[in-house]
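Friendly challenge for the regulars: who can give me the structure tokens for this chain first? No prize, just bragging rights.
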Amino acid sequence: MVIWIVIAVVVLLLLWVIATYNGFVKLAVSCDEAFSTMDVYLKKRFDLIPNLVETVKGYAAHESETLKAVTEARSAVGNSSTTAEKLENENILSGTLRSLFAVAESYPDLKANANFIELMDQLKSVENDIANSRKYYNAVVKKFNVKCRVFPSAIIARVFGYEAKPMFEVSSEAERENVKVDFGTSK
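First reply, four minutes later:
Bragging rights claimed.
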């Protein structure tokens, strides 16, 4: 009788380990899928930026510092090798794009340019898609990270090498502030 109880406990423990491990696998795949979805939209934005920069250059040639910052941030995103690095560089790129938009506000002729308007509409649509995909990514990563940290599944996470994944967060207080546009001093 004791042997059957021990065997039942061992079988239940083994089933729990298998179920918990499979749960981690499913969540890890969901995290990868969520990041890939977000990455598709980030790539769309990445591809729009050169056209936007070229359009702004024609009207705001003396705003070279801002244009250079956008170009460098775009390059940093392209050279990112890890998920965490890519997320950090995407935050930097978002900040430089905000500066570019502020520059564009100072040039009425640029804001009236049909090509610029079309690019801005495309970018606005992509930014909405990025925001939604970030929410989805963060929700999936939250589930994964909670499972990695709560007992007893934290034991399985450690045994099989699962670690918490990075959330997509705003990286600085400056990015949380509204963009300040000064129409009187930019020209």
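The CA atoms of residues 106 and 182 lie 7 Å apart. Helices lie at 2-59, 64-78, 83-105, 108-112, 114-149, 153-160, 173-176. Your move, everyone else.
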